[in-house]
Design a protein that fits this description.
Helix content is about 50%, strand content about 15%. Helix 5 (about 155-175) links the parallel strand 5 (about 135-140) and strand 6 (about 180-185). It is globular, with a radius of gyration of 18 Å. A 7-stranded parallel beta sheet has the order 3-2-1-4-5-6-7, sandwiched between helices. It contains 9 helices and 7 strands. Helix 1 (about 15-25) crosses helix 7 and helix 4 (about 105-135) runs parallel beside helix 5. The mean pLDDT is about 90. The longest helix has 29 residues, at about 105-135. By secondary structure, the protein is an alpha/beta fold. The termini are far apart.
Amino acid sequence: MKLDSCRALITGASAGIGREFARQLAGRARSLILVARREERLNQLRAELRRQNPNLTVHICKADLADLAQLKELEGWLEHEKIDVDLLINNAGLGDLGSFATSDPARNEQMTLVNMVALTSLTRHLLPQMIANKRGGILNVSSSAGFLPIPGFAVYAATKAYVTSFSEALRAELRGTGVSVSALCPGPVHTEFQEVATRSGGQPEIGPKFICVTVDQVVQDALAALEADRPLVVPGIAMKLGMFLVRITPMPILRWASRFSSKRA
């Protein structure tokens, strides 16, 4: 996937990794479609991008992807306005940190809708045109949490396991079509995600400094992986090594290790 003159749609674009994707693509893309719940932030970001890149076309769409009706409205708007997309960045995501037994059922439903259903639906909606044009890229923002079950993060980790598996299968299906698929699996990143995922009265958990990667680096690595047609990217040397070890470790050992994190949670 060549990013120059691409027409990119980015979900969860109002903050964090999604906003950084918009900033790094602004100097290369022909047009950007920014999707998020917070319209004021989207307007601010559009003004910033247009100020720095006067020739860039920026569309914004306020949508809550946990609402199926709004998801369908987004897809209908893209079709009605005949907005072409050849790069889809499924970045929007929700998390929840804490025991599943005490979790909010509504929050669990929102996580599955945003992290899995919206990602799958948008991909299905935009993919046929990419195949017809023999050009396209799909970057699914997963997580290193998807490589193993995580007590205290059970639903979130499970949804990200889906994203990684879906990306790998879709990539295999699309071989030879001109459409590439990559999964981004970052570890701890300093964004608003931790604050939003933390329940009332809890403390955000970031992790040791040596495994944290900046938002800027995460996005750089992700775009480079997409251009190089790599299936999976884990930003940061420490996380690469850690996730490699996790993926080759037998599940009985991981279950034994999870007892300690379960007690801590």
